[in-house]
Amino acid sequence: MKATFSNFGARLIELMVPDRIGNCSNVVLGFNTHEEYVINVGNYFGATLGRVAGRISKGVFNGGRLRFQLMVNEGGNHLHGGKEKSLDRVFWSSELCEVAGSQAVQFSYESKSGEGGYPGDLSVALTCSLTNINELIFEYSAKASLDTPVNITNHIYWNLHDAGATSVLDHELQINADKIIKMDAQLLPAGGYLSCAESGMDFKKLTKIAHSLPTNPTEPWPGIDNTFVLSNKTTGELTESAILYDPTSGRKMTITTTEPSLQVYSANRLGDLKGRHGIKYGQGNSICIETQRVIDNQVLPDLQSIVLKPDQEYFHKTIHKFSAE
């Protein structure tokens, strides 16, 4: 395997993975030049998201004994850290290194108090390792000077067949979840949960994506953009959470994470774009599987707060293990 990164947004540019007969090809969407990433920054290709990944209604964070106004950047709501100095739109410091005998790159960024509207300084680090057993590992850590919410993930668009040239609907997906968060038309929590079976998105066993799309889609393309709450999961415990499999190439990706939920998105709002190596991208030609936490919300009082205190350290580890069969 071979991984290519950029320090603009600490993003994954390309990942070369062998298929069942040993041929390596790219499995993630992206662009050829830095300028194209800047022009298409709102699609978050391969980027690290934060300080808080996800949507916050009207930009008002309310949780963990905090209440404050954030910058709004999507229909009056706050998305993925805002549009100025969010983690995907800044240059991180970076250096190549070895971690436990594996090739790695270490990224770091100092987010200053007030960036995006967030309180306190936040020191963020990300180590991306590529192991000799075909694992791509992301390890995030952060320390804050004041109480502040933190929820960091990566927005990789996956297509294990041809890096976005054709649909992912023939891919098979498995998620260790029995329920999703009930969402409104703005993709904000509406209060409570739906069983995966009730929603039509039941991936408890390996299932072709085309067979399990939402029964009442509100998206411009009728795909998935939902938060799956992982079953029997404690935040910080590293457990296998999802599998993505392409029957054509035989490539399989197994995701193990410390995080309690997955945001799954099938590129429903991705317009026609020319991407890396001239491939034309579109809706449903890729899928994001984002390991993360659920943002504090008054309609979901049962979930743990994402507020990080100065005496704590934020830590998030996700392993993408690749094989072929």
From TrEMBL:
Q: What Gene3D superfamilies does this protein's entry cite?
A: 2.70.98.10
GO BP annotations of the record are: galactose catabolic process via UDP-galactose, Leloir pathway; glucose metabolic process
Q: What class of enzyme is it?
A: isomerase
Show the Pfam families listed in the entry: Aldose_epim
Entry EC no(s) = 5.1.3.3
**Which pathway is this protein assigned to?**
Carbohydrate metabolism; hexose metabolism
Q: Which PROSITE patterns match?
A: ALDOSE_1_EPIMERASE
One example GO MF annotation: carbohydrate binding
Which catalysed reactions does the entry list for this protein?
A: alpha-D-glucose = beta-D-glucose
What are the alphabetically sorted keywords of the record?
A: Carbohydrate metabolism, Isomerase
Does Calcium count among this protein's keywords?
Answer: no
PANTHER family in the cross-refs = ALDOSE-1-EPIMERASE (PTHR10091), GALACTOSE MUTAROTASE (PTHR10091:SF0)
The entry assigns this protein to a family as follows:
Belongs to the aldose epimerase family.
Protein name stated in the entry? aldose 1-epimerase
Origin species = freshwater metagenome
